[in-house]
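Worked example

This section walks through a single chain of length 171. The input is the sequence exactly as stored; nothing has been trimmed or padded.
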Amino acid sequence: MRKLQMLCIATFAFLYANTTFAQDSETKNYDQGFRLGFGVNGGIPTDNDYRWSLGGDVRLQYDLSKKTSLTLTTGFTNLFMKNQNGVEVKDLGFIPAKAGFKAFVWEDQFYVLGEVGAGFAVTNGYNDTTFLWAPGIGYANKYIDISVRYEDYNKFNTNQVALRLAYGFKL
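Given that input, the structure is written out below as tokens.
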């Protein structure tokens, strides 16, 4: 009886280990690789100094697995100023440089994304560099990526809620 119990336990352990190794090999065989995306961004700043924003970006994405990716994003964003008391204030253009982590949470198409980095002011005599962080949610398929993000700039004294429409492809 004791030998039969040991045999059953050993068989169960063998089957469990075989199933675990099969799942690991499926994960390892996932086609990891790079994707490149080109996007257009439009946003609404959350303060009273800026009216709206418009920009473009390039995002390099490396798929770690079917559900997780690392991202590097750069481009150009322009914050359009409001006239303040009849005085025209200069717009602020900057280049963001962000690194991020994307996790697909539903049906391998809906995701959450967190990015951190810097924004380098490059227009109209501005010379500040700001820390920026941007959590977001989105939908992506083989070619299209649509997302909404909140983006915070500590030195530019504003934040924004932005929509990104992008076209992407595997490299």
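What to look for: Strands lie at 33-45, 50-63, 68-81, 83-84, 87-88, 92-106, 110-121, 129-140, 144-153, 158-170.
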